[in-house]
Amino acid sequence: MESKGIWQGNKAFKVKGQASNYEVLISPEDESLEENAARPMEMLLNGIVGCMGAAMTTIMRHHIDKIEHFEITIDGQRAEAEPKVFTHYDIYIDVKGDIQPKEVKRAVKLAEDKYCSAINSVNAKSTSHIKLNSEAI
């Protein structure tokens, strides 16, 4: 897998992934840069959300027609000193629909432990918070 970044000036790079051919403008937070640029560490969290969602929908594929709403939010905490790595992150999973709690829990566990490469690439502790039909499970 390959990704290429082309400098756009200041600290900004237009990054293009070889596998998807998708481009995104990435730059650290800086008052001299455009507001619409993604932040590098934000992109790591975005990758975890996308990977987690893809893994869970694959695992729950036999029940997917019963799901009315599925949302994943991630909140990462970073170290105070450089390098400001993620030290911990909380994943909030909100599912609504006629699906059994055990199916959602199973999907979360398999995604986190086995199938989501992005989670397993970030060396930080995590906590998952799961709600099914607005009830914590």
Q: Can you describe what's shown?
A:
By secondary structure, the protein is an alpha+beta fold. It has 3 helices and 7 strands, in the order βββαββααββ. The strands form 2 sheets. Strands 4-5-6-7 form a 4-stranded mixed β-sheet, covered by helices on one side. A 3-stranded antiparallel β-sheet has the order 1-2-3, with no helix packed on it. The radius of gyration is 17 Å and the shape is elongated.
What would the keywords be for this entry?
137 residues; alpha+beta; 4-stranded mixed sheet; 3-stranded antiparallel sheet; 3 helices; 37% strand; elongated
Summarize the structure.
The chain is α+β, with helices and mostly antiparallel strands and 137 residues long.
Low-pLDDT residue intervals, each spanning 5 or more residues: none
Count of helical regions: 3
Order of helices and strands: EEEHEEHHEE
Strand order of the largest sheet: 4-5-6-7
Query: What percent of the residues sit in helical stretches (DSSP H or I)?
Result: 25-40%
Pfam families: OsmC
InterPro entries: KH_dom-like_a/b (IPR015946), OsmC/Ohr_fam (IPR003718), OsmC/Ohrsf (IPR036102)
Protein name: OsmC family protein
